[in-house]
What does this fold into?
Amino acid sequence: MTHTSTPAEAPPVALRQDAELIAGVVAAAGRGMVDRETVAEVVALCAVAGEHLLVVGPPGTAKSEAVRRVAGQLGGRYFEYLLGRFTEPNELFGPVDLRSLREGRVEFETAGMLPEADVAFLDEVFLGSTAVLNTLLGLLNERVFRRGGTVLASPLRVCVGAANHLPEDPALAAFADRFLARVFVDPVADARLEELLEAGRRPAPAPVTSLLGGATDPDDRLGALDRLAAAARDCELDGVTPLLASALRRLRAAGVPVGDRRAVRSQRLVAAAAVLDGRTVATARDLWVLPLIASTADTQALARDTLGDLIGKAANQSLTHAAEELSRSSAARAERLTRTGAALLADHRGLPEGRDSRLRLEAALREIDAGFAPADLPAALAGIRAELVTAVAPS
It folds into this structure.
């Protein structure tokens, strides 16, 4: 199922279609969740970049639910496990194959286990034993599972580790460094509790539909992800390299620790952001990903402030919430409001006339007017605003 197409084989139109499909997957995963859209979007970003993600936050903040929904929308093989001090390697990687053992070979049965997963979620990842973490480290780094006589190429697109807090043990900190991107979550704010309660009563979202209105095959969704990942590997980065180097120097000077490995691999996130925006050439528009490589919530905030002028115009058509949260740019806000408004209008047209649907449209209209003066409205957002005004006008 792995695709090896390159941007030369896949014209930009096809690339944009794949990006739009993954944007739909992520939007569907985030629908009905409150303030967790960024987690879902960064999972997709890391899957395209070929990197792993660490989500840090208190228990009960829907970390696993966000990842589970993305995996469910992609339709791939999903593996989830809660690690503890006494978790055995076999619980993650599979038991010994008894038939091979009787023949004198130590091999493992990996069917349905982590080595054969497309997306994995490991809760309390730092509680794993040394044996678990050592084996996991090789799998994360190389996408190859080696244990006993078993050597298996893993299809793992992204592994998401979760923890309540960052480890203080230097050995565990070195392991944590293998998770390039980090997202820090807090409980939903008091002001959005009504929204949270309402969302908790809704059923889980149905599988994403294609632009033609029919359900897409899971292979199409994973295929789109793989084609985007291939395009990201070939993404043109030369033009943005001086800006990226300048940004990394500024982060280090501001006291944000960025080691050489994280500096080099940050390019993968930049390239992934570009292709998810429908482009094969990275630009300053894609540098909003850089705060993700900061190791703590405090240094992420510092990174945003330090790079404010560089990422002040950043945005992304597919990852609208993440780009806005990490860049705080008006361009990213416009992209998010455009996509959100279009989705609300589509939902409204498919529902009987009702107060709840109308209230959501009015709320979106108020947010647009609060964020942009009429003269500053981008064309796409102005069009959405006009449709919202028509939709809420008394009939």
The beta strands are 53-56, 78-82, 119-123, 144-147, 150-153, 158-163, 181-184. Confidence is low (pLDDT under 50) at residues 1-9, 209-215. The longest strand covers residues 158-163. The chain has 16 helices and seven strands.
